[in-house]
Amino acid sequence: MKSFPWSLLYCASLLLSDVLGTYHLNAGDPHLIAAQSYAQTRNNGRPPLRTLNPAKTDSQCRSRPLDLVFIIDSSRSVRPGEFEKVKIFLADMVDTLVVGSEATRVAVVNYASTVKIEFLLKDHFNKPDMKKAISRIEPLAAGTMTGLAIKTAVNEAFTEQSGARPRSRNISKVAIIVTDGRPQDQVEEVSATARASGIEIYAVGVDRADMRSLQLMASIPLEDHVFYVETYGVIEKLTSKFRETLCGLDPCAIGHDCEHICVNSNASYYCKCRNGYILNADKKTCSLKQVKVEVVEDPCKCEARLAFQKQTQAAIQQLTAKIERLENMVGRA
Q1: Engineered SS bond to 277: which of 191, 273, 281, 307, CB 3.0-4.6 Å?
Q2: Are residues 190 and 277 in the same domain?
Q3: Which residue range or ranges hold the VWFA domain (predicted)?
């Protein structure tokens, strides 16, 4: 029984090392990359729990701003008709997002033996242009260099020069990988590097996709980041799942303390007042604006009043003088 506390202490130290390794090391640190890979390996034993029976999306769900990069496999194993299904999936995904320079930005990385960036995060800020660019994508054929595609996305698509927002903006960076095969290069380390830099990775496997590789690429928890469909014919059904996964709840819709108007601000909110009111120091309640009334005398009225006063005083003086004369006449009599 003495060994039980020591076993418990050892397990706790392992968990603590995971936490310290993940949250207190800088992006790019080899120890952080190793910690990411180790944590990922420990979770790879659990099969993905996602299914293709998506629940109805919450009406309070709204697309949160993202820097979103699709990494799509167009190797020889993906037939032309199947690749068209992938493009339809991308277009449907764009339709579910709030797209714009201050909302979600989208890029597409196409890969096979080589990698081609179809468009960058800074290229299109409206849905029609984005969907036209998607419709023009052609398959590259040949091999499946998934690791190279992830590395290209990190080094070229998720940069500020390519349209990614700076880290200070706290905009989530998300990569969605769609593949139907086994990578012909190494994916574990390059995926760990991407995750360590702050990129959340979703892995979508189709048909012959290698589940082990999907698990090595995706962020944890795996049940939230690994998806599998049997054919490209049903990949469009994942759209509603991703809408639910990528959305953010509108804090104004789920409850707020504002007396008048609640304004959504990404993950938070702030209060505003209706016209004629000002926000109090508590930043929640409102008070009527104090209207300062300044009375300006009409100079014409002032002059008229002065003239009336002078006339009245003159009339009183005349009347007083008459009364005095009458009193004097009565006194003499």
Answers
A1: 273
A2: no
A3: 67-242
